[in-house]
Structures are given as structure tokens and as C-alpha cells.
Design goal:
24% of the residues lie in helices and 41% in strands. By secondary structure, it is an alpha+beta fold. It folds into two domains: 99 residues, Ribosome hibernation promotion factor-like (Double Stranded RNA Binding Domain, 2-Layer Sandwich), CATH 3.30.160.100; 68 residues, Nucleic acid-binding proteins (OB fold (Dihydrolipoamide Acetyltransferase, E2P)).
């Protein structure tokens, strides 16, 4: 499925059907590949016979929730140029997806209360304990609104937990 709003235009050249088909095919593939939809895409192919990097240029602009991604590439041949630009867009969409996932916050209703059990400051990690006695690993980077070095055993905290490779781990920790 293509993004809802797609514009493919040519400047100083006519868009060939195989170019349009390749662009639409790649955009549809990217649309299925990522959680966030591509809201709109604008592709402009430009014939620039005088350009030092090649006779053609592509400007690709894709709008996704919360961001606009722009790709500009030059080259000698149009079809490889389309593929290269859409590969770059693919990588940038992946980066955007990772950034968005980092921004997703665990809602307060999923937060748990506990206390600092043990700290290993030389290795930047420690363990929390839930009221029912479960030990939860956390890394220094998980500490929000405070510093890992200021934590002390017995201190009460609020945290969110997920299953890690070696057991439960805190995704974030905040001093109460």
C-alpha cells in the first residue's frame, strides 16, 4: 500500500513509466516495513546535464508522524539513483523508528514501587527490590531525574520493568 499522498515529478525530463513503477514499488515496501506510516512522499527527478556528480538528481521528501525526512542524491543513471535514494530513506526511517521507540514512555499505571537493594558503582549497575521480594537489575543509564551515584541502598524508587536476557530489568528508575 502506498502512502496516502504521493507526488512524482520530473524537472527537465519526462518521468518514464518504469521509474514511476520502481518508486511506487519501493514506497509501498517501506510503508509495510515500518510501524509509523509514511503520510506523504514527494519525489522530484531533475535532469542536470551540467552537474559535476552526474546528469541526474533526485529530491525525496517523506513525511512521517513528528518528522520530515529529506534525501538528495546525484548520479549518472536514473534507476540506480532511485534505488540508492530509497535505500537511504529506508535507513533514515529505521533511525526514526528507533528514536520514536525510545521516546515511548511507560505509563504511570505500569510503574512499580521498590527500593534500591544493591549498587555496583564501579560497574554502573545495581539491583532493586519489589515489595514482594523480586530482584530487578538496572543500569546507571536507566536512572531518570537524578544521578546513579547519588542512590543509596534502601532508598525508595519508582520504576518500570521488562524481561531482560537474564531476568527482570528496569527500563527506567526514578527516585520518589
Amino acid at each position: 500500500m502506498l502512502p496516502l499522498d504521493v507526488h512524482i515529478e520530473g524537472r527537465n525530463l519526462e518521468i518514464l513509466p518504469e521509474w514511476r513503477e520502481k518508486i511506487e514499488e519501493e514506497l509501498a515496501r517501506l510503508q509495510k516495513h515500518y510501524k509509523d506510516p509514511i503520510l506523504h512522499a514527494r519525489v522530484e527527478l531533475i535532469g542536470t546535464a551540467h552537474h559535476r556528480h552526474g546528469a541526474f538528481e533526485i529530491h525525496l521528501v517523506a513525511g512521517v508522524p513528528g518528522d520530515t525526512i529529506t534525501v538528495i542524491r546525484q548520479g549518472e543513471y536514473v534507476l540506480p539513483l532511485i534505488v540508492e535514494a530509497l535505500d537511504v530513506l529506508d535507513r533514515r526511517l529505521e533511525e526514526h523508528s528507533h528514536i520514536q521507540q525510545q521516546k515511548v514512555k511507560v505509563h504511570e499505571e505500569f510503574a512499580q514501587h521498590g527500593k534500591v537493594l544493591r549498587l555496583f558503582p564501579e560497574k554502573d549497575y545495581g539491583f532493586l527490590e519489589t515489595p514482594d521480594g523480586l530482584e530487578v537489575y538496572f543500569h546507571a543509564h536507566a536512572v531518570k531525574k537524578g544521578k546513579f551515584t547519588s542512590l543509596t541502598p534502601g532508598q525508595t524508587v519508582k520504576f518500570a520493568m521488562e524481561e531482560g536476557e537474564k531476568g527482570p530489568q528496569a527500563t527506567w528508575v526514578r527516585v520518589e
